[in-house]
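Structure ticket #2291
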Amino acid sequence: MRIEGSFYALIGFLFMFYGYFRAIDEPMISVVLTIFSLGTRVLLAYLLSAVPSIVYIGIWASIPIGWALADLAGLYYLHKKAVKPAD
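Resolution: structure written out below.
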């Protein structure tokens, strides 16, 4: 719990992205970020739990890693949208 709790700012940013994308009328991006976050957390928990030296720590660490990756995906989309050439 200490591992996950020290990274709660990441889920805060992710919730901010959810709200932002809904506000600009792109709710599908919020859904994609949610699925991406959950999918990476599950996959990482499965993979990291197989490493004998970090079994439980790997499972707990997968949560903030999934949040961080979803945050990066949200930032990437924002950047891509901001640099889009004007029509």
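Closing remark: The chain has four helices and no strands.
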